[in-house]
Design a protein that fits this description.
Mean pLDDT: 94
Strand content: under 5%
Number of strands: 0
Shape: elongated
Helix content: over 70%
Structural class: mainly alpha
CATH class of the largest domain: Mainly Alpha
Radius of gyration: 20 Å
CATH architecture of the largest domain: Up-down Bundle
Length: 193
């Protein structure tokens, strides 16, 4: 017959795993909110508020990774990937605006795939920043952003993403680079760069 003790253990195991998953989802929402806050404040040149949020989000991501480590299968879940991707996008964007540096995946302590996904999303924020910079007549910033997105694009050409989420995100980098190249061309034609 059926081993009822074995089933009771599986029910308990499943229940624990489900509880960890729920904790991960809740904390993931907080990290995504904090990410949006960082990007919002960075776009508005409120770097003090953004920096405070970066410090907070690093604590949250550490806790998030600890929770995910309790059920390793969660490290490959959509929730985990999407949350870390948003974290990467926000922290890297802040770092670029503040110090003109793009932290590596190792510096951020994240896996390759969510790092690359976050970099792909980053280019959209950089395009937005370039447009705002052009309206403020900060043309050297526009040129630097164009060079940065071009470097990201060229670096990602080394991969064969096939038909994955990364492939779609990578395609958006190509379109972001085209927008920036058009903006730079317009500024050159007006002798601004």
């Amino acid at each position: 017959m059926l081993d009822e003790k074995d089933f009771a253990e599986m029910v308990e195991e499943y229940s624990r795993s489900d509880s960890v998953r729920e904790d991960l989802i809740k904390l993931g929402r907080d990290i995504i909110k904090a990410s949006k806050k960082i990007i919002y404040n960075t776009h508005r040149d409120d770097l003090d508020k953004a920096e405070a949020s970066v410090k907070d989000i690093k604590k949250l991501i550490s806790k998030f990774n600890d929770i995910a480590g309790k059920s390793p299968e969660l490290l490959y879940s959509g929730t985990y990937r999407a949350t870390v991707q948003e974290y990467v996008e926000a922290v890297v964007y802040f770092s670029f605006v503040k110090s003109r540096k793009i932290p590596s995946r190792k510096e951020l302590g994240v896996q390759s795939e969510p790092y690359l996904l976050g970099l792909c999303d980053l280019t959209g924020e950089l395009v937005r920043n370039a447009i705002l910079s052009a309206t403020k007549e900060k043309y050297s910033d526009v040129k630097l952003i164009n060079e940065t997105v071009e470097k990201i694009f060229n670096s990602m050409l080394q991969f064969d993403f096939r038909n994955s989420e990364l492939r779609k995100k990578f395609d958006s980098v190509k379109y972001d680079l085209k927008k920036l190249e058009d903006l730079v061309l317009q500024l050159k034609l007006k002798d601004k760069i």
